[in-house]
Amino acid sequence: MSALDPVDVRLLNALADDPRATVVALADRLGISRNTVQARMSKLDRSGVLLSFERSMSTHALGYPIEALIAVQVRQADLPRIVEELQEIPEVVQAHGLSGPVDLMVRVAARDTKHLFDVDAGILAIDGVERTETSLVMEEVIGHRIRQLLDHGRPAS
After folding, report:
1. What is the DSSP string of 84-119?
2. pLDDT tens profile 133-143
């Protein structure tokens, strides 16, 4: 990714303020042409600055009121296959590879505690998974956010 220029930063700030803004609305707000906004958005998308366009949804509203973080320890040689198998479990909504004693942190959604127990058992049943430790998510106290980084400024490249 090439360095972000001031127009890119202004566009990202506008998107942080209003993630649902249309290209037309962004162009009006920033005082630049729609074609420029569209070209910049495409560049930011291709370069990996913009992540998933999937709309965030409440798992609770979808009938899964329990969320948990499952710390997973695995045999390292099996990690790629284990990740593929985790992707097949519908209740897995997110996973991160970590350094340190925990190899994966998996966020899951469940209908109830029995369902959570079954999801955890399914993860443990994957060949190469050595251990799991489950923690219930009580409340999201800070959601995913980027605006503070934009306001803070970027480190020199």
Report:
1. HHHHT-TTEEEEEE-SSS-SEEEEEEESSHHHHHHH
2. 999 999 999 98
Cα distance between residue 37 and residue 43, in whole Å: 10
Q: Which residues fall within 8 angstroms of residue 152, CB to CB, at 6 or more apart?
A: none
The backbone torsions φ and ψ at residue 89, rounded to the nearest 5 degrees and listed phi first, read: -90, 110
Q: Is the dihedral of CA 31, 32, 38, 43 positive or negative?
A: negative
Q: Is 11 helix (H, G, I), strand (E, B) or coil?
A: helix
What is the average pLDDT value for the chain, to the nearest integer?
Answer: 92
- In the chain the first and final C-alpha atoms are separated, in Å, by 11
What does the pLDDT read at residue 154? 60
Closest CA to 123 of 111, 138, 139, 105: 105
| Rounded Cα gap, residues 151 and 88, in angstroms | 38
Could you give phi then psi for residue 149, rounded to 5 degrees? -70, -40
141 vs 13: CA distance, rounded Å: 23
Q: What is the mean pLDDT of residues 30-43?
A: 94
Q: Which amino acid is at 83?
A: V
Element (H, E) at 93: strand 92-97
